[in-house]
Specification:
Blueprint (H helix, E strand, L loop, with lengths): L14 H10 L9 H6 L3 E5 L2 E4 L4 E4 L2 H4 L8 H11 L10 H14 L9 E5 L2 H16 L3 E5 L8 H4 L17 E4 L4 H10 L5 E6 L15 H11 L3 E5 L13 H4 L6 E4 L10 E5 L1 H5 L18 H16 L2 H17 L7 E7 L2 E6 L10 H13 L2 E2 L6 E4 L7 H22 L1
Parallel strand pairs: 3-13, 5-6, 5-7, 7-8, 8-9
Antiparallel strand pairs: 1-2, 2-3, 4-10, 9-10, 11-12, 12-14
Helix pairs in contact: 4-12, 5-12, 13-15, 14-15
The chain binds pyridoxal-5'-phosphate.
Length: about 425
């Protein structure tokens, strides 16, 4: 079928991709993101929701660096802001015009959550680093030390948050710090039991992804997040919302807290905030900070790169675009269209649940007979079938997560699903 956006004209990987990959291979330590290893492609550029590889092939991007490329690829305003700031000043934690502008802009958005108290930000350069800091802040404020997160949750790979990771990522990496517990996602009764039966009664924080991203873009059951907040407060703990993926418009609202009508005591953000420049942050209220030593002592919560003039310029330029172009509303509208299109794929016997919120969608692939997750070789076949037709999507897993750049157009979203449908038809033919 003729395509408007995707175009693959070489074998995959093409000769230039293969040459670049071969140069990296002897020196790159293993463990890079699966999608990169499976695709075997080198990318050179992009525009909006389209990525261009080193051989000139064009792919629709349903991944966006796992929710990072919010304003799309090759955005001229981000490039301009980085160039302008890089030629003046790049490092240091002194006040800067760029940081002042970013802090004001972030607060203009976070203050719209709930009662409007989330206005104070500390900046970092990675998601795990920000979540670790949020946990330290909760400990500093409550003078307690235990934390609970949820099965399926993902908050990064540093040791502190690894202990709160609800998956087998942590196997082989123990022992992990004590005082961290996991409770089944979506179950408030079990959360109460975890607090009663597992903790020592010194709970500082409950940490939750408003929508579980890595677990498969799982939406919370009705009332779950409000219940978590209530339970946290009942036990004198803080409620931390990790909005690393869900923040900055992805769910159709600026923050998922607004979607579910909850307000965290501490929230974290990252990924889409700076369109690819490494920026993350912790936002909280004056009330939490009023009594939060040692976190609040000079140099106790800072980092080398957090909020540097360069990082701030990148995040400010990206955030300005998200706000001014109302990419949250755009994500809500295109997300609805995308979900409608994805629902068509239910006609395939191996398509289970299809779900989504804004531009955080997912399809579960299942064995048609047993309804167990579809076997890995079938998923990898689907991944390659998509790639060969010009779609990058996380279909190598039986839980396909779809997180395109927020700027994706209706026509691009439709074409991406057309490719996925064609690839699924190829998988169906192979299985029959
Ligand atoms: C919800 C959430 N929190 C934290 C992280 C960790 O972010 P980073 O990879 O920047 O450390 C991620 C990464 O995927 C995430 O999805």
């Amino acid at each position: 079928m003729a395509r408007q956006f995707a175009k693959v004209s070489s074998s995959l990987p093409g000769p230039r991709s293969r040459a670049i990959t071969a140069r990296e291979q002897p020196y790159l330590a293993p463990g890079i993101q699966q999608i990169s290893t499976l695709a075997g492609l080198a990318f050179e550029g992009g525009k909006g929701a389209v990525l261009v590889d080193a051989d000139g092939n064009r792919f629709l991007d349903f991944v966006a660096g796992i929710g990072v490329a919010s304003i799309g690829h090759g955005h001229p305003a981000l490039a301009e802001a980085l160039m302008r700031q890089a030629s003046k000043l790049t490092s240091g934690s002194y006040a800067s015009e760029a940081r002042a502008s970013l802090l004001e802009r972030v607060a203009s958005q976070t203050s719209q959550i709930g009662s409007g108290k989330l206005t104070r930000t500390m900046l970092y350069s990675g998601g795990a680093e920000a979540v670790e800091s949020a946990l330290r802040l909760a400990r500093a404020h409550t003078k307690k030390h235990e934390a609970i997160a949820f099965w399926g949750g993902f908050h990064g790979k540093t040791t502190g948050v690894l202990a709160l990771m609800g998956s087998d990522f942590k196997h082989g990496l123990g022992p992990l710090p004590a005082g961290n517990y996991l409770s089944p996602w979506g179950d408030l009764e079990m959360l109460e039991r975890t607090i009663k039966l597992s903790t020592t009664g010194k709970l500082a924080a409950i940490l939750v992804e408003p929508i579980q991203g890595t677990a498969g873009n799982l939406l919370p059951p009705p009332g779950f997040l409000k219940g978590v907040r209530e339970i946290a407060h009942k036990h004198g703990a803080l409620f931390i919302a990790d909005e690393m993926i869900t923040g900055w418009g992805r769910t159709g609202r600026m923050f998922a807290q607004q979607l579910y009508d909850v307000e965290a005591d501490i929230m974290t953000f990252g990924k889409g905030v700076a369109g690819g420049f490494p920026v993350a942050g912790v936002v909280t209220s004056d009330a939490v900070l009023a009594d939060a030593e040692p976190w609040t002592k000079p140099s106790f919560s800072s980092s080398s790169y957090g909020g540097s003039p360069l990082a701030s310029a990148a995040a400010d330029a990206c955030t300005k675009i998200v706000i001014e172009e109302r990419l949250d509303q755009h994500a809500a509208r295109v997300g609805e269209l995308l979900l409608g299109e994805l629902n068509r794929l239910r006609r395939f016997a191996f398509v289970g649940e299809v779900r989504g919120q804004g531009l955080m969608c997912a399809i579960d692939l299942v064995d048609p007979k047993t309804r167990a997750p579809l076997a890995r070789p079938d998923c990898e076949f689907l991944f390659r079938a998509c790639l060969e037709r010009g779609l990058l999507t996380m279909s190598y897993s039986p839980r396909i997560r779809i997180n395109p750049p927020l700027v994706i157009t209706d026509a691009e979203a439709r074409e991406g699903v057309e490719i996925l449908e064609e690839a699924m038809a190829a998988l169906e033919a192979r299985k029959s």
